[in-house]
Design brief:
With 272 residues, the chain is of the alpha/beta class. The chain contains nine helices and eleven strands.
Amino acid sequence: MKSYRLVSREVKNEKTLVRVKDAVFGGRKVVVIAGPCAVESREQLLAAASRVSQAGAVMLRGGTFKTRTSPYSFQGLGEEGLKILAEASLETGLATITEVVDQASLELALEYVDMLQIGARNMHNSSLLCMVGRSGKPVLLKRGLSATVEEWLLAAEYIVAAGNDNVVLCERGIRTFEHVTRNTLDLSIVPLVQELSHLPVIVDPSHATGDRHLVVPMSRAAVAAGADGLILEVHPQPERALCDGFQSLSTDEFDCLMPGLRAIAATVGRVA
């Protein structure tokens, strides 16, 4: 058997369905998660939530605990940001997701959001993986910056082995020798991992490309490749964003993206 036993197709051949309120990962519908990189203010998040909901997103993303390369960059609003996410969810009906980085952020997030995110930097953090596994809350697990497929699936194995089957994998690009994009988006991973594992697989074209002009075509390509969903950075005013504005779609751009995604999804037997 493969080293990642519990998440392997050898143990379970049928695809796992992960339910987060009205969103179902792994089913016929391509789940679209959208929202700003970080919750910056109540006004900013509520404006983003309203627009992405109207355009067809079913989940709202918003970073509240930001693991940044520089200690001087915006680090998130913490619990205040979680409260704003919860308010936006009540207003729009969207399920919510935020990244957790340690035990303290996890314990806070469990009170406010519907899904937890493990970022690329923490994919190898086995202690955190076990904690989110014991929480029982649905988890989005991003692929590490230079992680192999086996390492990624073994990280998921930690969560499932701790008692949590509700895991969604997220390809967000890997670090290579190329610097013209933020990372290198490996779309071949989508059908490959779907053959190896029963867990749903989604794609993050925002972090993978680091360029809002590339997010739209890569979103289309991800759906065509069979991705079970997308997680997109969308901001009411990307030019004023406190982080990742350069890779964030405006709400108008997101509006324009969604009809095309629906058309592509239909050609591969899905809906978006």
